[in-house]
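As the next step, I selected for study one protein, both as residues and as discrete backbone shape codes, as given directly below:
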Amino acid sequence: MPTVIHSTLRAFSRTIFEAVGTPPNIALVVANSLVDANLAGHDSHGVLRLPGYCGSLRDGDIVPDARAALIRRDRATAIVDGALGWGQPAMQLATDTTVELAREHGLGATVVRRCYHVGRVAPYVETVARAGMIGLAMSNAGPGVAPFGGRQRVLGTNPFAWSMPIGGRSDPLTFDIATAAIAEGKLRVARANGRPVDPTMLVDRDGKPTSDPNDFFAGGAILPFGGHKGNGISILAQMLGRSLAGMDTTGFDGPRGANGPIVLAIDPTCFTTAEEFATEVAAQAMQICSSRPADGVEEVLLPGEIERRTVHHRLDRGIPIPDTTWSELDELARSLGVEMIEGGIEVEA
């Protein structure tokens, strides 16, 4: 598969968004969201999404030049209207607002209404952490997951993330997951690479376990991670997305982008000093990393460590793009009259 340096991929993605009517400053935000996901190794939320995003726009699900706005602020809470535009700028406004609320009240929470796909959630909670606070975020999504004990698509992949400052390093400690056994976008990556998935993650349209990612797109369903435990976290995100953010995702199928996100911030200085908090987090992190690895494991890693290392690797070596995705991007560029980028050295999938 070809590789592309991140700056080239950012410029290409921004050009695609501008070609479909997105203002340049908004196009930059959305493009950065996708490419940053690629850099972190989460190709499921990277430029693989470009054709789907543009398809949603053609179907009328997105207003490309819409601008998100803060429509309500009440005590330590706020509501952002995504205005049916791209989700990333709306979620970033919600995150910045939440930090402001927490600075004033010690706690802050913001929901986004009329919101399209917000992309990978980690960068938003990391924004909170870089402001010296504890960030949490979750969202519902289009139905693609069967509830525990079921076989029918009812829940979304429903992301859940948190982040906090950690003493001794600039990058915060971050955890970001889909509450499904596998993210829908990772099924796209597996399909693009012609790879099977763990059959404990997926059932086909008849409710039978399957390792073929194509079975999901033919009407199958993903299962929750961790059985009833992941199911419970997913239901929390589902309930808040619908009841607080007002996002009814039942009209969307799993591959379509629709989110009802909520982001929260906690200012630790309401309970301790910023320095003591970061130092304690660092001490506990060291204790975790210093624990004896299990057989066959080289080292115990903190959440987000693999992503940190992948960013450094891909900044140096470039971002690999699966051949199937490359062909889809080429087709999309041609349809919009945009010049396709050139790939670098070929690497094995």
Summary: The longest strand covers residues 107-113. The domain at 1-65+318-349 is CATH 1.10.1530.10 (Hypothetical Oxidoreductase Yiak; Chain: A, domain 1). The longest helix spans residues 87-105. The chain has a mean pLDDT of 94.
